[in-house]
UniProtKB/TrEMBL annotation:
Keywords: Amino-acid biosynthesis, Histidine biosynthesis, Lyase
Signal peptide limits: none
InterPro entries: IGPD_sf, ImidazoleglycerolP_deHydtase, ImidazoleglycerP_deHydtase_CS, Ribosomal_Su5_D2-typ_SF
GO molecular function: imidazoleglycerol-phosphate dehydratase activity
One Pfam family recorded for the sequence: IGPD
A Gene Ontology BP annotation from the UniProt entry: L-histidine biosynthetic process
Protein name (Swiss-Prot/TrEMBL): Imidazoleglycerol-phosphate dehydratase
PROSITE patterns (alphabetical): IGP_DEHYDRATASE_1 (PS00954)
Pathways per UniProt: Amino-acid biosynthesis; L-histidine biosynthesis; L-histidine from 5-phospho-alpha-D-ribose 1-diphosphate: step 6/9
Length: 107
């Protein structure tokens, strides 16, 4: 059974369409209008092997907050919807990951 989901989220400030495939290959097509947010979501997709297709339009002429927040909500809803029974997902974990000149610790 494929673990895929689509979510659309429309508010006064944003219009977001998101699609994930948890059992993907890390392919992505992401356009939020915010360069750094695109980059971070691309890294999430690539390193988790989750396919992500996302298009977000927001009031970035005012600030980046609404688009960033609503994108996170849409991706979270997609992942929850696609996960169904949460097979293969651990509740607790930790990692130390060196990348470039940083060491990231996640718990």
């Amino acid at each position: 059974m494929a673990r895929k989901a689509k979510v659309s989220r429309k508010t006064k400030e944003t219009n977001i369409s998101a699609e994930v495939n948890i059992d993907g290959k890390g392919k992505y097509k992401i356009d939020t209008g915010i360069g750094f947010l695109n980059h971070m979501l691309e890294q999430l997709s690539r390193h988790s092997s989750i396919d992500i297709n996302l298009k977000a339009k927001g009031d970035t002429h005012i600030d980046l907050h609404h688009t960033t927040e609503d994108t996170g909500i849409a991706i979270g809803e997609c992942l929850k919807k696609a996960s169904k029974k949460f097979i293969g997902i651990k509740r607790y974990a930790h990692a130390l990951i060196p990348m470039d000149e940083t060491l990231t610790r996640v718990a």
